[in-house]
Amino acid sequence: xxxxxxxxxxxxxxxxxxxxxxxxxxxxxxxxxxxxxxxxxxxxxxxxxxxxxxxxxxxxxxxxxxxxxxxxxxxxxxxxxxxxxxxxxxxxxxxxxxxxxxxxxxxxxxxxxxxxxxxxxxxxxxxxxxxxxxxxxxxxxxxxxxxxxxxxxxxxxxxxxxxxxxxxxxxxxxxxxxxxxxxxxxxxxxxxxxxxxxxxxxxxxxxxxxxxxxxxxxxxxxxxxxxxxxxxxxxxxxxxxxxxxxxxxxxxxxxxxxxxxxxxxxxxxxxxxxxxxxxxxxxxxxxxxxxxxxxxxxxxxxxxxxxxxxxxxxxxxxxxxxxxxxxxxxxxxxxxxxxxxxxxxxxxxxxxxxxxxxxxxxxxxxxxxxxxxxxxxxxxxxxxxxxxxxxxxxxxxxxxxxxxxxxxxxxxxxxxxxxxxxxxxxxxxxxxxxxxx
Length: 437
Prior knowledge:
The protein folds into two domains: 151 residues, Lyase, Ornithine Decarboxylase, Chain A, domain 1 (Beta Barrel), CATH 2.40.37.10; 256 residues, Alanine racemase (TIM Barrel).
């Protein structure tokens, strides 16, 4: 069992989060239910901020694509973090949450003209330009609006981290960024300097997600600082900022061995310092973008057990009232999770079962072959580490309403995302007049 933040087993033998019995949460707010441990979320923000600030000028920005809603964006602001956004919708969320827009970094490989205009009008602090087309487009829009914009360029450094193929981004063959090994990155810097309406502040890279090996971060940082030296030697420019992205791994399943944020800070910050000394470069401000590592461990999803089926000699299936609609990651790339029965958290394991979702897909399986106490209809299944890329990637497949999300802290639970209704499901449907009879 892997408990984080305020999670514990209480005197009833039930899982407790934020001082509230998970069984009571399920009863009050119904299931499926996303639960966010506020104290755990805040502690994760602080751990990264403290780890990097110990080495000098740095900024931790929360990658809101992992989990974005008004309440959590506001908490990230209160904890002194910046914000990583990747769409007009995420910009709008930041704006409505009252987040300081000068601390917002706008990413994306195909930002629309409308999104770029929105970023400029709302005062986004950095636009991370991803390609030559966007560089030209943004410069043109800025000239039309008479506004100069601070930018960074996203660089593809050619570093392959050991992670799932779908979440690797630093390798040469990637849809993201200006490729470094073939000279495209240097040409991108030259072009940016020729754009009179753009102010190049620094460079960004991101080598992937769910990374446990700090050597990957050290290597990527070294490659980027080597390139900073090239930029200085070739173009006479010393850049002010270096954004090393995110990708810090968390615990989902046995075998996952996450490091301490201090290890990441040491790997990145010491490499920057060593390379700056080697090349006689000024120390850039270092930026990192943890998302999953902040929101993931702070989240739990609660489900109610329903039907069960046994294929004799092969497998026992038990079904829950959610599935790939609220957590597509197992179906998308084989993600594995740890879970317990929240109402039998202190009971010994009795059987091996596989947790099926309720969607009309054979692939809607949340967990294969997990050992649990005897599973009965009405039991509450708690799946750990679901704070990242669950709500963010959820859908209405099979016209299932999305669950509610509650924030728990010191014995109090507050709804921060309402449960969808069937009316919400059809809200944008339009029935043509000729079909109305």
